[in-house]
Amino acid sequence: MPDRRTAQEALERLTVDVPDWPQEGVTxxxxxxxxxxxxxxxxxxxALAAAGRDDHGNVVVDKVVGMEARGFILAAxxxxxxxxxxxPIRKAGKLPRETHAVSYALEYGEATLxxxxxxxxxxxxxxxxxxxxxxxxxxxxxQELIEACGGTATGVAVLMELGFLDPRxxxxxxxxxxxxxx
Length: 182
Prior knowledge:
Elements: H1 4-14, E1 16-19, E2 27-30, H2 32-36, H3 38-49, E3 63-67, H4 70-82, E4 85-91, E5 99-106, E6 109-116, E7 125-133, H5 137-148, E8 152-161, H6 168-171, E9 176-181
Parallel strand pairs: 3-4, 3-7, 7-8, 8-9
Antiparallel strand pairs: 1-2, 4-6, 5-6
């Protein structure tokens, strides 16, 4: 079974920096080469899923949420690895039934996220999974959505954390598991 260090090495080796995308001054972290490599992708999913287990390997969460859009790619297989359900956190207007919604600031703009009102049960312990922790705004908004449903966010697992943006100032006491800090 791959270890955390294998996942970190894969991220360092395969992630491609794309300068000035989606706008000038932003360096986009392209993880598509990581996803295309079976061994790297497997190691990353195993490492992210560890955030949903205790020290004995027991699953300690009831649901995994993934934030649109790259969070979906990671969170769904993490949920499968843990043997629990996956809940998508979508951009505004993408979910067909009654939702909770939260608006927040991004690194380079604003966004609104939504979740179906019945996607998370009262008392559910929820692990949040995404690709990059930048400003912490998406995590804070997602935690608010989880709590609006009656659930409890137990932690967040991400591939990369942009430490220079100080995202943990927005995540409070929430445990953060990151594979690579930039």
